[in-house]
Write a structure and sequence with these properties.
By secondary structure, the protein is of the alpha/beta class. It has 18 helices and 18 strands. The structure holds 5'-O-[(L-methionyl)-sulphamoyl]adenosine (MSP). The site of 5'-O-[(L-methionyl)-sulphamoyl]adenosine has 19 residues, from β1, α1, α7 and β14.
Length: 519
């Protein structure tokens, strides 16, 4: 795609202490949908995901599993690749922080920060939560059971006292605030931006960026008793993958700064405060935007291993279907808010919005064409105002969707598409092509043509969220592979009257409860 605009989007890299769960799938799904949308819109996309493999948390998990950290991370990292496959993710790269390219980049960033006077040696004495891989101030903690202290995230902290290198974060307060002020879209949603800004206004302390009490990490160049703080190591992955430290490389020049880092709300501070400070400290540009999404609960309860209510992303897909789950997760919750997974609302949306609204539209139109137009794209006659209105509505969606997707408001994008799905169903009912068949066949053909066109456009719009079903619909309206892009929206790719269509088949099955099915 010579000359195409680049778009670089990243997921957080996942800790390999755990099997992939629904939270991991959610962050990557959001990125996958954006990556697919941008590709369809002609962008040259780079979509990065991967695994965060160093640090105390992973070291402990390996110990518990009775294997060395490298074999442990090899295995668990593989599980994340498998998840990407099972959920249809189209990442272009998968980075592991134990790879040579990454160790090299992280050490180069470190050396640059040292050379620029941003890192100095001292001693850290304070609280640390291994679960969050984060340092906490005394005032942030509350008392927990058995004399333990607890971080705001709920993680237990331990007292750490050891020689440590520090990053001069305190010196970056004003420049960070300026970054947020000059770039109002740098942090989204707005409420999260306010939180970050008030945190930074409250004053920043220098950040401990190395540890000496364990060894599973990237050695600090020139002082190998220290390993780099896992967040400094991990955040660097975003530039490793585009060729850092070779900042003259084609990839780096084209792709950095990243267009979007997608993260969960729990790790926003690392991405919106520490990361831009590290980058600016090294004389590099900060990313363009960080979006923090909310967390899922399961039937109203916090998801946790101890409660035994972890949602297995594989089970979910087996039970409801991949496209259905992808649709649900992005439709159910305004993106950015917390949301609840419930079987009831999953089935409700699957049956009413997918099977009834969208599925029925496609099914009834295509079977009428099969029966009454010999399975050929019908020849339209002159268009009425109502025909033009529907075709106009579906073509006008594209600029709207672009704006909505650039704000990462997936739920609004789907709602906007469904407004047209419902309008198309209303049009079918009003035009009643089954009556026209007896009274006015040429008009019936026009109506069915307008509907087939509407369906073609709708299926292009739903490709990013529901790739399999949308491809199946596009097959059924006879759209060639090369016409499956937003360049074909509206006039760009009109169906050719007389073209033969394959036999229609339903793409959105209803979910039937076992009890209802008489099982
Ligand atoms: N390794 C760090 C990220 C480093 S990025 C340089 C990390 N990994 S993680 O595996 O713990 O979490 C990754 C993502 O999963 C986060 O964005 C987090 O918000 C998301 N989720 C984990 N549980 C979740 C839910 N229950 N719901 C939604 N997302 C959640 O943090």
């Amino acid at each position: 795609m010579p000359g195409a605009k680049p778009y670089y989007i990243t997921t957080p890299i996942y800790y390999v202490n755990d099997d992939p769960h629904i939270g991991h799938a959610y962050t990557t799904l959001a990125c996958d949908v954006l990556a697919r949308f941008k590709r369809l819109d002609g962008y040259d996309v780079r979509f990065l995901t991967g695994t965060d493999e160093h640090g105390q948390k992973v070291e402990k998990a390996a110990e518990k599993a009775g294997v060395d950290p490298q074999s442990f991370t090899d295995r668990v990292s593989g599980n994340f690749r498998a998840l990407a496959k099972a959920w249809g993710f189209t990442n272009d790269d998968f980075i592991r922080t134990t790879e040579e390219r990454h160790v090299r980049a992280a050490q180069a960033l470190w050396t640059t920060l040292v050379e620029r006077g941003e890192i100095y040696l001292d001693t850290y004495a304070g609280w640390y939560a291994v679960r969050d891989e984060a340092f906490y101030g005394e005032s942030e903690l509350r008392d927990g059971p058995a004399g333990k202290k607890i971080a705001p995230s709920g993680a237990e902290v331990e007292w750490v006292e050891e020689p440590s290198y520090f990053f001069r974060l305190s010196a970056w307060q004003d420049r960070l605030l300026k970054l947020y002020e000059d770039n109002p879209d740098f942090i989204a949603p707005q409420s999260r931006r306010n939180e970050v800004m008030s945190f930074v206004r409250g004053g920043l302390q220098d950040l401990s960026v190395s540890r000496t009490s364990f060894s599973w990490g990237i050695p600090v160049p020139g002082d190998e008793k220290h390993v780099m703080y896992v967040w400094l190591d991990a955040l660097t992955n975003y530039i490793t993958a585009v060729g850092y430290p070779d900042i003259a490389s084609a990839d780096y020049t084209k792709l950095w700064p990243a267009d979007l880092h997608m993260v969960g709300k729990d790790i926003l501070r690392f991405h919106a405060v520490y990361w831009p400070a590290f980058l600016m400290g090294a004389g590099l540009e900060p990313p363009k935007r960080v979006f923090a999404h909310g967390w899922w609960t399961n039937e109203g309860q916090k998801i946790s291993k101890s409660l035994g209510n972890v949602i297995d992303p594989y089970d979910l897909v087996r039970r409801y279907g991949l496209d259905q789950v992808r649709y649900f997760m992005l439709r159910e919750v305004p993106f950015g808010n917390d949301g609840d997974f419930s079987h009831r609302s999953m089935v409700q949306r699957m049956n009413s919005e997918l099977a009834n609204d969208y599925g029925n539209l496609v099914q009834r139109v295509l079977s009428m064409i099969a029966r009454n137009c010999s399975g050929l794209v019908p020849e339209p006659g002159p268009l009425t105002g109502e025909d033009e209105e529907l075709l106009g509505a579906v073509a006008d969606l594209l600029p709207k969707l672009r704006t909505i997707m650039d704000a990462q408001l997936f739920h609004e994008a789907l709602e906007a598409v469904w407004v047209v799905v419902r309008a198309a169903n209303g049009y079918v009912d009003r035009q009643a092509p089954w009556t026209l068949r007896k009274t006015d066949e040429p008009r019936m053909r026009t109506v069915l043509y307008v509907l087939a066109e509407t369906i073609r456009n709708l299926a292009l719009y739903t490709l990013p969220v529901m790739p399999t079903a949308s491809d199946a619909i596009l097959d059924q309206v006879g759209v060639d592979q090369e016409q499956r892009s937003f360049a074909a929206v509206g006039q760009g790719g009109r169906l050719v009257p007389g073209a033969a269509l394959p036999k229609p088949a339903g793409v959105f099955p209803r979910f039937v409860e076992e009890a209802d099915a008489g099982a």
